[in-house]
């Protein structure tokens, strides 16, 4: 049983990411993905939120909170790793702009590939990261399925339409299976983090990240939602790659896994609340 669970986790993660990217490609065109990124203000705000404000906030937060070094290392890695693989799916959950979520994900992924190898050694001694080591799994798991989906959409629209329900089912199955497996695998670590208060630091990290992204995510509610969840959900794949290849202490990987899980849960909860809050605000505006 102990051997099956890690395999299930990998299958769930891969099926979720690949199905999400492939399904996103089946729904969009290159022009639709590129269009939101022509808004220079939105692009600058996205880069500022993810590569400047969140890392600085987390770095200074950790200076004032008494945590062990492995936990701090894991949180800093998560703060620096941006471009979550789940962003298109999260955009659907929060009813955000799907095209912008895909363009933003690629923009942040590309930024992370160059940003992490430069910045991480400056804040964590002894860590060495190569850009290609980060880029390779992201290209294989994310950009390749997206490109295939876009190609099918452009040339075989009927086939793309028929494949969409299948990718949605695979994506949802991978998402909920992955969440369930990780809750089981990391249950004891979650309880430990609750007892030590570390999980509340993770929660502050997530809430701050979402708030910054949401406030900077204009011009519309649909882009605010996307930048909010895109900033709150970090690049788990890149962070885990760094954690497993540079650290012997298992607590570094554990905090990355638990923080990623917490981020996903909080974002999914926000996804259910955001449309209600926006509707309430709109209604108040109409009444006034």
Automatic annotation (TrEMBL):
Pfam families: SBF. Its main location: membrane. Keywords: Membrane, Transmembrane, Transmembrane helix. The keyword Transmembrane applies. It is a multi-pass membrane protein. The keyword Nucleotide-binding does not apply. The chain crosses the membrane at residues 12-30, 42-62, 98-122, 134-154, 166-185, 192-216, 252-271. Coiled coil: none annotated. GO terms for cellular component: membrane. It is found in: Membrane. InterPro entries: BilAc:Na_symport/Acr3 (IPR002657), Bilac:Na_transpt (IPR004710), Na+/solute_symporter_sf (IPR038770). This is Sodium:proton symporter. It comes from Aetokthonos hydrillicola Thurmond2011. The lineage of its organism: Bacteria, Bacillati, Cyanobacteriota, Cyanophyceae, Nostocales.
